Amino acid sequence: MSSPVTAVIVGAGHRGVGYANLSIHKPEMLKIVGVADPDELRRRKAAEKFGVPEEGLYETAQEMAQVPQFADAVINGTMDLDHVPTALPLLEAGYDMLLEKPICPTREELLTLLQTTRRTGRKLMIGHVLRYAPFYVAIKQRLLAGEIGDVYAVHSTEAVSYHHMAAAFIRGRWAHRSTNPMLLAKCCHDLDLIAWYYSGVRPAYVSSMGARTVFCEANAPEGSGTRCLVDCDVEADCAYSARKNYLEQKLWAPYSWEAIEHIEEPTDEDRERSLREDNPFGRCVYRTDGDVMDHQSVIIEFENGSTASHDMITGTPRPGRTVHIYGTEGEIEGFMEDGAFVVRHADARAGEEYSEEPVDVSVTMDGHGGGDLRLVEDFVAAVRGQERSISSTEILDSVYGHLIAYAADEAMTQRKVVEIEDLG
Fold first, then answer.
1. Angle 182-197/134-144 helices, nearest 10 degrees?
2. Could you give the domains of the chain?
3. For 171-186, how does the pLDDT look when each residue is reduced to its tens digit (9 = 90+)?
4. Is the pTM of this model over 0.70?
């Protein structure tokens, strides 16, 4: 066994630390030797967890890039707007990189990153963990084996739960299109999966429609106020009650307490007071200043004439992802959260309309359907120069998935079909 790949964490938040956990589960594969984060408390906690010495700690990626390279790779878990500014100096310094998705909010930044990666020759893998979830791996294996012939149409849906939508995209950091278009922020996994199914084939044209009709003041119930715990008469019966979601049910609670990160051990009283005062998670979901869509559909035509479509629906009671892939010799249809799909074939010889093979996949819902640590293992293999899994493709597939999202936002707002350029 080779010595472990050494890595530094840039952005010691939920995702960066989550990926780095492979070093605890499989220390023979990965060793964390540095942390960069402007927040002193997060930096110290990560250093303690992974045994990083003081000389391996930095406030910024830029500071880290200025010292001689002291690790093989970077796990970049910074916020979306910081991805490219932190990635570029470290790629230039010689580090390979695992970069959390989405890559960045604009096409211009994306192309700059692609050019830098190609010029430096560094390995760049994006945190599209659903490619590594057993459910999608099993589907991809069937496609590669040719079990349904040539794929010519795909339809997928993501139903975003009411509590996830409220926490991340209505009250949370991703509430504005200027930060990230909604399809990019929430459905970059799904668009990446579509690009992965058609790997090597360029998406050529994109159209899209969407709107915000659920999370708006016109839909606010009678008696609602501006803050759940201050002036709302219907808070006790509202599914989006901040008290219910974040204090009692603890749904996406870590997001909601970022407003009081400066308190090392916050009490329930601290949390409730923050929801009453200035914590954005205490706001009424029907009265915020956000402008992301709460439902949107996108249609893609690929250069070979194949098509794909994706629907994002939010505020749903039961979240989940569905996929239906049509090939020249059959079809695959499944629901990820059930861990099951079916493979169908026309079966005239047997005297039936079609045959159907059910496939059950062992699924853990920890870490994106079991994909998180599998992704990091594949990244370690890439850094070592070893054979990578079927989930890993050239960076261009990840880039095209993002270009679909940018094009969809442009197509939706400008009511037109948008062409995607060939970057091969």
1. 40
2. 5-100 (3.40.50.720), 131-215+290-371+383-419 (3.30.360.10), 222-282 (no CATH)
3. 998 999 888 889 999 9
4. yes
